[in-house]
Amino acid sequence: MFLVKRSFVKTLSTSLANFSSKTNKFDPRSPELSQLLQPWDRGQTKAKKKTFLKFFDQGLRPTDLLKILQTPIDLRASKLKSWWQKKLLDRNLEIQEYDGLRNASLGSDISIGHALLPLGVGLLYKGKPWMKAEVGSWNIPEVPDTREDDWILEAVDFSGTPICYEGLLNFKNLSSVHTIKAQNCPHLDDWCIDILCSEVLTLEQLDVSGCKNISPKGLIPLTRLPNLQRIDLTDCPAFETHDGVLMCILLQEFNPNLKIDGVVYPEIPDMQSSVTKA
Fold it and tell me: H or E element: which one contains 231?
């Protein structure tokens, strides 16, 4: 009979426990699963303690910091305005940033409310009135902090908000959204249209009037939407050109039931009258 050291037995038992937790995807002892079973806390991902020195830590490389120190300070009104606009954009990106833990805990329909309502985005849930807050207002409509199956998102209104590609990453596997209104959105571009057409396959109505950054190529992803019935391109400069009109014609050839507003098609001469005059 031989003796076994206690340390060896302890190490072996620990290794077996770790192995079982790795092979078992739904181990009840895992912190990931315990987090999903608890109500989501709005501040849990932003709870990093900030000190005064944190203000100077912007994640810059030494060469970037040296360049900033060597650049003369410019206090012209135009420079201050551009600096402030960049700060506002960074803040907006931080607010609407996709949170995977929040999405897994609450589901996409409710997670979108937490991410986009502070930006002034309007949301319509099934059986409930429109929910919308003014931009910069502290009076933000409340959405649940736990997963609830009866909160089903049906329509979204981005009009006049600083919605960006990062905010649209919150749209994951939505199965009931039929209307999206995005009038005069300064940051809405072709990439935004692409992600909407990838995640909102039930879309029927799309209004992007006044969006200046959408090009004719940005309409190509609309071919993924079998139920699309109407799109509004009013006051979109790219669709006042020959290429834009041609893209709309091709899109309607692909989807004959699609109605496109805001595009002026060229008049086709009457061939019969031309032959009669000749």
Answer: strand 230-232
